[in-house]
Amino acid sequence: AQSVAQPEDQVNVAEGNPLTVKCTYSVSGNPYLFWYVQYPNRGLQFLLKYITGDNLVKGSYGFEAEFNKSQTSFHLKKPSALVSDSALYFCAVRDIPMNTGFQKLVFGTGTRLLVSP
Amino acid sequence: GAVVSQHPSWVICKSGTSVKIECRSLDFQATTMFWYRQFPKQSLMLMATSNEGSKATYEQGVEKDKFLINHASLTLSTLTVTSAHPEDSSFYICSARDPGGSYNSPLHFGNGTRLTVT
């Protein structure tokens, strides 16, 4: 089965500094990777995805992610963090189990980003 | 853009009672919806895939008789937690695929339902 790992429970960064939220993946075949953000007591919002093409993917709210096949990583980045970026971030991978054929998203455990003023 | 509405936002019920959570796709039809459960330590677990007009596909370890899913129309899926117990207290989130999109299209999520069983 496909999976993603987010090694950091929390990332702290000062406003204006660059931020990185890490994600590594384990897949058979081509990876289809996603980043979502969750604000308190809310559902998830889509940020960006990697399917094919350029390794640097640009998404919503100034976020981008770099797909690195050799390191099996898909880290989320932003050049200059804002206090309002503080939220819970989830990396996800598409999985299609053989026994069902239904596509589903498998999420990482999430990383809490805290941006201090 | 596509909006998924989930109701209620929060609910408190007594142990042994049943609770129904609704997930509606506004302004678009969703043949497939997904129900997730989020545990206190952040992890998001897929419970089941809800398919309009057919039985839901449950993930391994999820009790079908406890978490009843009905997807009777193209815009509504419901999750009923039957005979709820305190351990069922959690944050439940539904989602639907971007309308007209491919399998790689992003999911649109409802705002979740906080269930507390006393």
Q: How would you portray this structure in words?
A:
The complex is a heterodimer of chains A (117) and B (118). By secondary structure, chain A is mostly beta strands. Helix content of chain A is 0%, strand content 51%. Chain A is built from no helices and twelve strands. In chain A, strand 7 and strand 8 (64-68) form a beta hairpin. The mean pLDDT of chain A is 91. By secondary structure, chain B is mainly beta. In chain B, 0% of the residues lie in helices and 53% in strands. Chain B is built from no helices and eleven strands. In chain B, a hairpin with a 5-residue loop joins strand 4 and strand 5. The mean pLDDT of chain B is 89.
Summarize the structure.
By secondary structure, chain A is mainly beta.
How far is the N terminus from the C terminus of chain B? 37 Å
Q: Find the structural class of chain B using helix and strand composition.
A: mainly beta
Low-confidence stretches of chain B: none
Amount of helix of chain B: under 10%
Biggest sheet architecture of chain B: 7 strands, mixed
**How much of the polypeptide of chain A forms β-strand, as a percent range?**
over 45%
Give the count of helical stretches of chain A. Answer: 0
Oligomeric state of the chains present here: heterodimer
The rough form of chain A would be described as globular
Cα radius of gyration of chain A in angstroms: 14 Å
Q: Unreliable runs of chain A, pLDDT <50, ≥5 residues?
A: none
DSSP strand tally of chain B = 11
Rg of chain B (CA only): 14 Å
What is the overall number of helices of chain B? 0
Number of separate strands of chain A: 12
- How far apart, in Å, are the first and last alpha carbons of chain A? 41 Å
Largest sheet of chain A: 6 strands, mixed
**What structural class is derived from the secondary structure elements of chain A?**
mainly beta
**Envelope shape of chain B:** globular
Indicate the proportion of strand residues of chain B.
over 45%
